[in-house]
Amino acid sequence: MTRPLAAVALVGGALLAALAHAAALPEIPAGAGVPAGALVIIGGALRPDNAAVWRRVVALAGGPGARIAVLPAAAGNPALAGATTAALLKRYGATPFVVPLAPRLDGSDYRKVADDAAVARQVRAAGGVYFVGGEQLRITQALLRDDGSRSAVLQAIWDLYRRGGVVAGTSAGAAIMSSTMFADPPATLALLRQGLEPGRTVAPGLGFIGNDVFIDQHFLVRGRFARMIPAMLGTGYRTGIGIDEDSAIVVRRQRHVEVLGYKGALLVDLAQAHTGPGGAGQPLSITDVALSYLDHGDRYDLATGRHVPGPDKGAAQAPDTAGHRSPVYSNDILGNNAVLDVMEKLVDSDQREAIGIASGDPRLPGPQPGFAFRFRRSAGTMAWPSGATRAWSIRDVRLDIAPAVSSVVLPAAEPERAR
User: Fold this and answer.
1) Which of 321, 375, 323, 382 is nearest to 352 (CA)?
2) d(CA 327, CA 325)
3) Per residue in 232-271, is it b (16+ CB within 10 Å) or e — as a string?
């Protein structure tokens, strides 16, 4: 017997308490209206020559000469990361300045800087803010006070965003865009086997995109779609967007999403999903997860679900008309780009479904339980091929996940014989 997603409870009382900490879940105050600004959420590893993304950040901040505050709080070497990012923004026409606010910045007390009125005024007057990558917990550590309330600088960023400025972030700077973010998650297979660990797997983010969309980054190259699903289940999200490296989504006031960059983003929709009979601490079993791939140039309306393929895409391709005439299968569905490869082959084939496998490390002692991923074409599945590249835009491929047969265990090595 399966359970509708609406009936799935949050995992663990400690997790409930952490996520319900109202002060640490920044929301738009009642009556303040929807922010007039835009978000540029980058999946990490943004190349210096990705002009489409860099130029959009500058344009949304006000165009040539725009003042952009660079926040290197997440970085392990914030001085270097801040200077490098500022130099790139300057190359693309901005007038950036680095905010000396980072837990690992030598010679600076980040708590004092975060509540420095002069620094806050400088940030508030800028046209945009850019969060560099690194560890996302360092960003919330730097910008939230011990009681979870906003520091003066964080309030200034919200003021900038509300009046029409841009808030951009890459990697860790993308993770903090949702109200809940990954903190210190286990490996994906462990998360699939056991679910969220209260107080560790997730933590409050800064919530610029709102409380209804879960954001993750480095998404396709690291196979992170499988970790997003249990995280969304455990925290009550229905919609998740995972952005790949060297790619970005631009989110406008009207909740319109546009995809820029080298690749794109995977949309994870749990609105019609059903979970299996297990509970907290049990292996994940779920059916009818809806996956859609938003490619470069695509637009998506978060309010209505309307997906408009990019200008290089042709007409939607009819099923069973092209390409692959043999079973579609991946024995490492968590591998680099594997989920998108399977989806593309499925919509360009005579097959109705595809199978992916994720298994444990055969070098570990004892059997390691794995998972089977079944991808299905549904009545709503649509796909648009590019006329210029091999890329696709894909709408509504269904995914079922269930525990699978244990992985192969390698035999123990024989003791080395004496020569």
Assistant:
1) 375
2) 7
3) bbbbbbbbbbbbbbbbbbbbeeebbbbbbbbbbbbbbbbe
Neighbours of 332 (CB within 10 A): 12
Residue 308: other Cβ atoms inside 10 A: 16
In the three-class reduction of DSSP (H, G, I as helix; E, B as strand; rest coil), residue 415 is classed as: coil
What's the distance, CA 86 to chain centroid? Answer: 24
Strand pairing report for 265-269 and 299-301: unpaired
Question: Read out DSSP for 315-372?
Answer: SPPPTTSSSB-S-EEES-TTSTTHHHHHHHHHHTBS-SEEEEEE---TTSSS---EEE
Side chain identity at residue 201, one-letter code: T
Mind listing the pLDDT tens digit of every residue in the chain (419 residues)?
Answer: 454 554 433 333 333 333 333 233 333 343 346 899 999 999 999 999 999 999 999 999 999 999 999 999 999 999 999 999 999 999 999 999 999 999 999 999 999 999 999 999 999 999 999 999 999 999 999 999 999 999 999 999 999 999 999 999 999 999 999 999 999 999 999 999 999 998 899 999 999 999 999 999 999 999 999 999 999 999 999 999 999 999 999 999 888 999 999 999 999 999 999 998 766 678 999 999 999 999 999 999 999 999 999 999 988 876 555 666 789 999 999 999 999 999 999 999 989 999 999 987 777 777 778 999 999 999 999 999 998 888 999 999 999 999 986 655 556 655 555 44
255: left (phi over 0), alpha (psi -120 to 50) or beta: left
Beta partners for residue 261, in sequence order = 247
Cβ 175 vs Cβ 217: under 8 Å: yes
Question: pTM for the whole thing?
Answer: 0.90
Indicate the DSSP class of residue 76: S
**3-state SS assignment for residue 390:** coil
